[in-house]
């Protein structure tokens, strides 16, 4: 930062030099000073970020999600139109190769061993490779759906809350109507209409999923638009579009971010649930939920008396660990941005 | 506004929502390419277009879409949901037959959730930031993160296959009111209730911890009330309001959870029927169950709203 900027930004502010709050060892017990008020001039986002980084469970979540994403990306090489974009392969086998055709020592439902750390599934494929690779579907669908639905909800809720009147009335009736259906019921019907597949699943969870965000943002906008700076912007002749997008929506972002980060887990569980019901990705795809679908019968019958627990435990564990880490991040964002009073943190959870 | 007028107003407000719900249900299902008639015809090459038209007319699948909607809706309003093409049975008979099974599961899930969550929530809030609180928070976080179908599979694996406490499938379907069925209700009920329990516990903890800092608590303590009475009589009552706000969302969660959980445990309720209906493209059955779900959730929302207004006298009825 240059000196001139410093001066212009600090104009009108009382600056005390030679006083370092870090050095104060004892404080008047009745004083209101906390570490946060000491940095009160920092922006809301900066303060939030600092608090987030200091939150241990949120950071564990970030690390786990990063590791899982990296493992999914580097599990098998990625090619785009014949060009190898990503040449690494952590997964020892191709997730769809049926191993006993090449290697006669491998059998269907071989228990975990050093060559196959998570065992072999019911079709003779290496489970470890499939689980690494499967992250690609669940994780990317989760992030894409939440990105889409949160953006649509932001615009929808912003318009509805800003204009009010009959526009708001009509738009909120639509939201109320969609709100009457559990997301998974609508997703099931959409997938039944379109058939399974990656983009079909994205559509199934996005088409009505913006509903919760729209409600939340509208409520926020109703509060924000009463602020003087909105009136000031309008008085200065700003157009509606610029008032909404420049002045109102940025201030509605914190609760939206909380809801979004807590919703990724819900979407991932939803996608896996459809896969489990046999309505997600095509059968045989290395998607976590679809992998569990195939194990349902064998869990109960079990080939020659043994129970292939590994085929059930590991894929589910992958979903569970990812969703748990995502929720830890969401809780961290919630605490950091102090958005609890909006109730955003309570809306997520469950399918 | 009096409470009665508030309730009346809310009741009137759900009429357009009910209409919207029926339109969405109908529109979505009728966008489906391929209904059961197509499947029937696909199997039989001898059917002429004239026969096809006749079959369609019989099931009310001819004519423009708004006409079909009006026919369907007027039938639904007198309780006639049409029949299932596959077996020729009445949809309403199937729904009435399956509904108690799902309701039993839902009630068990709710009772389990409240029974676990409220004591744990109180415990966690009273012992805030101590070891017990940390543990229960971790358990609650796991509870909202675990996919319910996988939890069901794991319960079958551990409880039924490894410990042998339950047979994997109920040996025979006794009627639902038979006391022995309660035993078979436990695993699916726990599976359905876990997510709700975890959410309630988290909300209870936050709400109670917040209430504990309020001035009336200090006042009650200063008056010399025992801590137990302060917590259970004053704090708990005010914290339960936030659980009521959550109740409608959780009911929706339990309704949608029942679909997957019934498939896992092969429980003959509406959810399993719904999946079967989707597999077989039974248009009438899909619409009936979807409509039912929507109406159930609207009613749950309404009850939660009214309860909220009754419990919290600060709420303005508007």
TrEMBL record, chain A:
Its main location: membrane. Keywords: Cell membrane, Membrane, Transmembrane, Transmembrane helix, Transport. Pfam families: BPD_transp_1, OppC_N. GO terms for cellular component: plasma membrane. GO terms for biological process: transmembrane transport. Residues 18-40 are annotated as: Disordered. It is found in: Cell membrane. Coiled coil: none annotated. The keyword Membrane applies. The keyword Membrane applies. PROSITE patterns: ABC_TM1. Residues 20-30 have a biased composition (Basic and acidic residues). It is a multi-pass membrane protein. Belongs to the binding-protein-dependent transport system permease family. This is ABC transporter permease.
From TrEMBL, chain B:
It is found in: Cell membrane. Keywords: Cell membrane, Membrane, Transmembrane, Transmembrane helix, Transport. GO terms for cellular component: plasma membrane. Its main location: membrane. InterPro entries: BPD_transp_1_N, MetI-like, MetI-like_sf. Belongs to the binding-protein-dependent transport system permease family. This is ABC transporter permease. It comes from Natronocalculus amylovorans. The lineage of its organism: Archaea, Methanobacteriati, Methanobacteriota, Stenosarchaea group, Halobacteria.
């Amino acid at each position: 930062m240059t000196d001139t900027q410093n001066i212009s930004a600090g104009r009108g502010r009382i600056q005390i030099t030679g006083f370092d709050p870090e050095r104060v060892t004892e404080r008047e017990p009745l004083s209101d000073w906390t570490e946060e008020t000491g940095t009160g001039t920092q922006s809301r986002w900066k303060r939030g970020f600092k608090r987030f980084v200091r939150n241990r469970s949120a950071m564990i979540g970030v690390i786990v999600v990063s590791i899982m994403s990296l493992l999914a990306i580097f599990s098998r090489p990625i090619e785009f139109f014949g060009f190898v974009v990503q040449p690494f392969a952590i997964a020892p086998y191709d997730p769809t190769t049926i191993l006993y055709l090449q290697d006669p020592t491998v059998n269907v439902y071989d228990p975990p061993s050093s060559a196959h750390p998570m065992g072999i599934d019911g079709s003779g494929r290496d489970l470890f490779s499939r689980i690494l690779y499967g992250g690609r579907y669940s994780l990317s669908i989760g992030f894409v759906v939440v990105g889409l639905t949160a953006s649509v909800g932001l615009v929808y809720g912003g318009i509805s809350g800003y204009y009010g009147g009959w526009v708001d009335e009509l738009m909120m009736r639509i939201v109320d109507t969609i709100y009457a259906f559990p997301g998974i019921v609508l997703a099931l019907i959409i997938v039944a209409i379109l058939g399974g597949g990656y983009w079909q699943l994205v559509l199934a969870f996005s088409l009505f999923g913006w509903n919760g965000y729209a409600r939340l943002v509208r409520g926020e906008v109703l509060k924000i638009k009463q602020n003087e700076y909105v009136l000031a912007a309008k008085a200065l002749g700003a157009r509606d579009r610029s008032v909404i997008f420049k002045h109102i929506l940025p201030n509605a972002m914190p609760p939206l971010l909380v809801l979004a980060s807590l919703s990724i887990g819900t979407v991932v569980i939803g996608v896996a649930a459809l896969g489990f019901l046999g309505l997600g990705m095509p059968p045989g795809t290395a998607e976590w939920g679809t992998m569990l679908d195939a194990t349902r019968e064998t869990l109960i019958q079990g080939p020659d008396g043994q129970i292939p627990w590994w085929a059930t435990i590991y894929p589910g564990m992958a979903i569970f660990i990812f969703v748990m880490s995502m929720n830890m991040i969401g809780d961290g964002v919630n605490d950091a941005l102090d958005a609890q009073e909006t109730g955003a943190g309570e809306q997520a959870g469950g399918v | 506004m009096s409470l009665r007028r508030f309730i009346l107003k809310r009741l009137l407000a759900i009429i357009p929502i009910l209409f919207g719900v029926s339109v969405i249900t109908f529109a979505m299902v009728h966008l489906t390419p391929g209904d059961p008639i197509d499947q029937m015809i696909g199997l039989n090459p001898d059917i002429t277009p004239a026969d096809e038209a006749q079959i369609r007319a019989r099931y009310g699948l001819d004519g423009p879409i708004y006409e079909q909607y009006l026919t369907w809706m007027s039938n639904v309003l007198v309780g006639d949901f049409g029949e299932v093409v596959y077996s020729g049975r009445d949809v309403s008979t199937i729904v009435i037959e399956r509904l108690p099974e799902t309701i039993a599961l839902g009630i068990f899930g709710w009772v389990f959730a409240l029974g676990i969550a409220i004591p744990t929530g109180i415990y966690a809030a009273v012992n805030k930031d101590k070891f017990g609180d940390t543990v229960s928070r971790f358990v609650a976080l796991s509870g909202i993160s675990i996919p319910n179908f996988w939890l069901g599979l794991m319960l079958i694996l551990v409880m039924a296959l490894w410990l042998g406490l339950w047979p994997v499938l109920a040996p025979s379907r006794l009627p639902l009111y038979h006391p022995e069925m309660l035993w078979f209700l436990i695993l699916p009920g726990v599976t359905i209730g876990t997510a709700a329990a975890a959410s309630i516990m988290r909300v209870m903890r936050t709400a109670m911890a917040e209430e504990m800092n309020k001035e009336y608590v200090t006042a009650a303590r200063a008056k010399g009330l025992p801590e137990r009475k302060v917590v259970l009589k004053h704090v708990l009552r005010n914290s339960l309001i936030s659980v009521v706000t959550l109740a409608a969302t959780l009911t929706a969660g339990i309704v949608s959870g029942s679909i997957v959980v019934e498939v896992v445990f092969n429980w003959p309720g509406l959810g399993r029927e719904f999946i079967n209906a989707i597999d077989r493209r039974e248009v009438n059955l899909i619409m009936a169950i979807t409509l039912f779900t929507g109406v159930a959730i609207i009613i749950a929302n309404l009850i939660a709203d009214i309860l909220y207004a009754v419990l919290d006298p600060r709420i303005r009825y508007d």
